[in-house]
Amino acid sequence: MQTEPVTLSTPRPVRRPTLVQGWHDLTFLHWPVEPDRVAALLPAGTRPDTLDGVTYVGLVPFLMRGVGLGPGPGLPYLGTFCETNVRLYSVDGQGRRGVVFRSLDAARLLPVLIGRLGVRLPYTWSSMRLRREHDVIAYSCRRGRPAAGGPVSRATVRTGRPIAEPTPLELFLTARWGLHVSWHGRTLHLPNEHAPWPLHRAELLDLDDGLVTAAGLPRMTGPPVSVLYSPGVKVRFGAPSPIGEH
Fold this sequence. Notes:
This protein has 4 helices and 13 strands. By secondary structure, the protein is mainly beta.
């Protein structure tokens, strides 16, 4: 099968940021999936983005820091919390590659309310924790009250050496300069910019996840085909634009 070119350019500069965030201590876990199995889950006007005819499901736990409106600075307390997202990968008619979030669990209520009411992202307030001991990081997430039996996600990884030259797949999974979201009957593209990801090899030591299937996605029966770690980046978001407009 012929390999599709990975034409991931650098992001367009965000001159008037609407939102700033810091993404830290991220682990990227990815599984391949046939595009037809997830196409109906994407916003109108987008389609699954593929590499070698395959698209991917991502599970990404991390620590959010310094969330703030406008150019910042972000808030030190309210803007710092654990988050885990379940995501798909999209491309629109203008060739803008993005992320589609199927779920976002966050440990701080205010950002959850802002995300749900403002951009209509599928945020949920959850009990979460990140623990680090030397090169081992453990993430935990429990949605809802313990007695309610909501989905749980636990992942433990050992971080490894830095990656000098990411592979085409590693770039495809991480170099995404925006997101697509349904908003009041329209599809918006929300651009972002940040420095190139400092990626590291990582070893998955343990995984017990119920968030992927809770997000309406097929059950991932095997281990992830890609496990990556990043210490993080600072991010600036621009203003959203409807699909078909630049």
